[in-house]
Design brief:
alpha+beta, seven-stranded mixed sheet, 22% strand, globular
Length: 500
């Protein structure tokens, strides 16, 4: 069998292709960003054609960097930004509109309309998800109702829907010439159209949202051979694993036991706890979602707390305000002051996600005085990520009845040591960063693909690859910690109900 396994990591701001060896070490990597499109306030779009182009480019570049041929890869896994919605013509392969990104809030009127009968939790029992702008189902409905002629095409079976995973697999396996139209169970669980009990598309949800079943992909497990790639640089390599990015990070962190949890710090921040084969219905504002289903094994569920804006807030400070030249400048700027100077930043740019689910919230900065400077704002930006993580963790412990003894972290922001120390301080528990810290999502999808074709023998193989890089211990006096958290909660309430 070949010595390497590949992973496509298609994220909110960029696409990567990473080649791993059997130890989970990176052999080759290439990465390219794509444009963020903001046509109106609250609208966020991507160009699907650009994403497909970037995907092909990074695959070819990484293969060339590693001096690799298709025969050197045992299989390929895919991990992707979830909920981002694409509808395209099955005969031409052309999208009918730009992709509606998970952060996009244009469907807020649909949310209000549907919540009138049964409230925000109307569909939680079936889907594990509240009514909000976040998920794919209402984004599909918006495209069907607002792009001329598309509903008629959908009723005739002439257009296809997919989250990013589906769109990439269809193109990679031939596109208009026999491309496979599938999704994995983790991505399906983020549409608000799949029933968590039956693990199938739910007719009542489709009827309620007005979505024809003909446009939906077939639901598969997260780890099986789906088809062979037709793209030249990976020709005939099996595509054998798909996981939504946060579930992929859970697998990459080898959180296979009930009660194990990880937090990924990227564009947003996502804390997932494996609840095993038990589906835990949240009463505290979390999502109940599918963690993974490996081949013919049982489905595993997770509780998830989704935070929309974390790393994106650092980008906003860089791109919109120009306070820093590059994202890594945030830590040294924040270190120019000893504390936040009383400044708190609630980044509700797309409303507030878990555990509040306030689509009408908007970003606020509170506690400003003449004393405050750009260092205090930078520190407040970092602390916002840690405070939001505590909000979610407390809700998670309440729902699950499990007290976390340690938080495993990954993602681009975990290189920020000031943030990691503050995270440990505000949680009052250790925070652990693994050796593989910024490729965990890709690694998880590679693990899923590798298990499907025998590249990895079992879960023990994967656990053997996991190793700690650094641990931060809490080092804040209790009174200070609780005072800061109380002020944070007060700031959060100030963000409510700005958009009406």
């Amino acid at each position: 069998m070949p010595d390497y396994i590949g992973a496509i990591d298609q994220g909110t701001t960029s696409t990567r292709f990473i080649v791993f060896d059997r130890k989970g070490q990176v052999k080759a990597v290439a990465q390219k960003e794509h444009e963020q499109i903001y046509p109106n306030p609250g609208w966020v779009e991507h160009d699907p054609g650009e994403i497909w182009l970037r995907t092909r480019e990074v695959i070819a570049e990484a293969m060339a960097k590693g001096n690799l041929q298709p025969k050197d890869l045992a299989a390929i896994g895919i991990t992707n930004q979830r909920e981002t919605t694409i509808v395209w013509n099955r005969r031409t392969g052309k999208p009918v509109a730009n992709a509606l990104v998970w952060q996009d809030t244009r469907v807020v009127d649909y949310v209000s309309e549907l919540a009138k009968n049964g409230g925000q939790d109307r569909f939680r029992g079936k889907t594990g998800l509240p009514l909000t702008t976040y998920f794919s189902g209402l984004k599909i409905r918006w495209i069907l109702e607002h792009v001329k002629g598309v509903r008629e095409l959908a009723e005739a079976g002439e257009v296809l829907f997919g989250n990013i995973d589906t769109f990439l697999v269809w193109h990679l396996t031939g596109g208009c010439e026999g491309g496979i139209h599938i999704t994995d169970i983790t991505n399906a669980s983020r549409t608000q159209l799949m029933n968590l009990e039956t693990l199938a598309w739910d007719k009542e949800m489709l009827d309620t949202f007005g979505i024809p079943a003909a446009i939906l992909p077939k639901i598969k497990s997260s780890s099986e051979t789906y088809g062979l790639a037709q793209e030249q640089s990976i020709k005939d390599v099996a595509i054998a694993g798909i996981l939504g990015d946060q579930q992929a990070a859970l697998v990459g962190q080898t959180c296979f036991e009930a009660g194990e949890a990880k937090s990924t710090y990227g564009t947003g921040c996502f804390l997932l706890m494996n609840t095993g084969t038990r589906k835990v219905d949240s009463k505290s504002g979390l999502l109940t979602t599918v963690a993974y289903k490996l081949s013919k094994g049982p489905v595993h569920y997770a509780l998830e707390g989704s935070i929309a804006i974390t790393g994106a807030l650092v980008q906003w400070l860089r791109d919109n305000l120009g306070l820093i030249a590059k994202s890594s400048d945030i830590e040294p700027l924040a270190r120019t002051v000893n504390d936040n100077g009383g400044v708190y930043f609630v980044p509700a740019f797309s409303g507030l996600y878990a555990p509040y689910w306030k689509d009408s919230a908007r970003g606020v900065i509170t506690g400003l005085t003449r004393y405050a400077n750009k260092g205090h704002i930078a520190r407040a930006v970092l602390e916002a990520t840690a405070f939001q993580t505590r909000d979610v963790l407390e809700a998670m412990e309440k729902d699950s009845g499990i007290e976390l003894d340690v938080l495993r972290t990954d993602g681009g922001m975990v290189t920020d040591e000031l943030l990691m120390q503050f995270q440990a301080d505000i949680l009052n528990r250790p925070v652990v960063r693994p050796v593989t810290k910024d490729a965990t999502t890709a690694l998880g999808s590679a693990y899923a693909a590798g298990l499907a074709i025998g590249f990895f023998k079992d879960l023990k193989d994967l656990r053997a690859n996991w190793a700690v890089d650094r641990t931060w211990q809490p080092n804040m006096e209790k009174g200070k910690r609780e005072e800061m958290y109380t002020l944070w909660k007060r700031a959060v309430t100030r963000s409510f109900d700005w958009a009406v």
